[in-house]
Amino acid sequence: MLDKLSGYAKPEERILILARYHHMRPASLEKAATRWPKLQIDFMTIHASKGQQADYVIIVGLQEGSDGFPAAARESIMEEALLPPVEDFPDAEERRLMYVALTRARHRVWALFNKENPSPFVEILKNLDVPVARKP
Predict the structure, then answer these.
(1) Is 15:41 a contact under the CB 8 Å cutoff?
(2) How far is residue 37's CA from residue 33's CA, in Å, rounded to a whole number?
(3) What UniProt keywords are attached to this protein's entry (predicted)?
(4) Are 81 and 24 contacting, i.e. CB atoms less than 8 angstroms apart?
(5) How far apart are CA 79 and CA 61, in angstroms?
(6) How far apart are CA 66 and CA 3, in angstroms?
(7) At a CB cut-off of 8 Å and minimum separation 6, what does 44 contact?
(8) Could you tell me the residue ranges of all domains in the chain?
(9) Per-residue three-class SS string for the chain
(10) Does the bond joining 70 to the residue before it have cis omega, within 30 degrees of 0?
(11) Which end of the chain has fewer CB within 10 Å, C or N?
């Protein structure tokens, strides 16, 4: 994806890579400055991206299950006691977080997912006729 973007993104355009969790930062970003020197690439969690904008956004980690997005329901009594009550609409808070991720881009957003274990959000986006491309 970044190879493709390096062919047409302008040096002043920002590329924001977003994930649900910090540990989902792509390993390829370790060498991003040398591999894609003309790209202005930033990584952050979706929560941290609130109020941010970029020309292009890549959302990573759209899978189901452990460390999935949407995150699994609260399981501990402590979490249930300290956090606000769960809303009636399924995954309401996680849907709002997905909305934040999708609306950070000025030009285009890509949502990367695992074909074998996609996030339920992938199917929702497909049902809304959001285009799904095999390649960027």
Answers:
(1) yes
(2) 5
(3) ATP-binding, Helicase, Hydrolase, Nucleotide-binding
(4) no
(5) 24
(6) 29
(7) 16, 17, 18, 52
(8) 2-127
(9) CHHHHHCCCCCCCEEEEEECCHHHCCHHHHHHHHHCCCCEEEEEECHHHCCCCEEEEEEEEEECCCCCCCCCCCCCHHHHHHCCCCCCCCCHHHHHHHHHHHCCEEEEEEEEECCCCECHHHHHHHHCCCCCCCCC
(10) yes
(11) C
pLDDT truncated to tens, each residue of the chain (136 aa)? 899 999 999 999 999 999 999 999 999 999 999 999 999 999 999 999 999 999 999 999 888 877 778 776 656 667 666 766 666 666 778 889 999 999 999 999 999 988 888 888 888 888 898 877 655 4
The structure tokens listed for 103 are: 């609306």
